[in-house]
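Structure in, sequence out. Go:
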């Protein structure tokens, strides 16, 4: 069981207390568990999930890349977290699922990551500044784009609405 991403942990407090959270491509559920522990209701979606390992969360098993309709149509969330996952056609659905005042926390690999290993396929690597482009309708709280020494990543925390925001160190 891996620990939550420091990026996600840093910005998790911006999600409204008790607000519903969506964990996209939840995998083993490290961020699902983080938000459950923080008192949120959480919906975890992935093509393969172990509902027993994510007790307390709503789990939706769905292949987000097969052309099927977005399984959360019409639902909105106070927080949406996406890590180590990129499927560009989902951006409109993800953004439409972010409630007014909702927080998007997104972190994934970018071009140049092949130097460190997988993923290498450009379809799964962000272009320089691409997350900023996708989030231009949101208020950006923080953005990083670069080489960490272990991977090349982009990270963004953005809010659906105006600031200001109180961020604890």
């Amino acid at each position: 069981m891996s620990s939550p991403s420091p990026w996600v942990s840093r910005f998790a407090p911006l999600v409204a207390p008790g607000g519903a959270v969506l964990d996209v491509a939840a995998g083993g559920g490290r961020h699902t568990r983080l938000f459950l522990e923080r008192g949120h209701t959480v919906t975890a979606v992935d093509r393969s999930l172990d509902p027993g390992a994510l007790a307390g969360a709503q789990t939706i098993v769905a292949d987000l890349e097969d052309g099927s309709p977005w399984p959360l149509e019409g639902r909105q969330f106070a927080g949406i977290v996406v890590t180590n996952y990129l499927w560009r056609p989902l951006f409109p659905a993800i953004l439409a699922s972010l409630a007014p005042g909702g927080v998007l926390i997104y972190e994934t690999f970018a071009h140049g990551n092949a130097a460190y290993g997988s993923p290498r396929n450009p379809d799964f690597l962000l272009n320089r500044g691409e997350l900023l482009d996708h989030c231009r309708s949101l208020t950006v709280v923080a953005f990083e784009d670069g080489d960490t020494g272990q991977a090349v990543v982009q990270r963004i925390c953005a809010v659906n609405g105006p600031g200001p925001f109180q961020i604890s160190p």
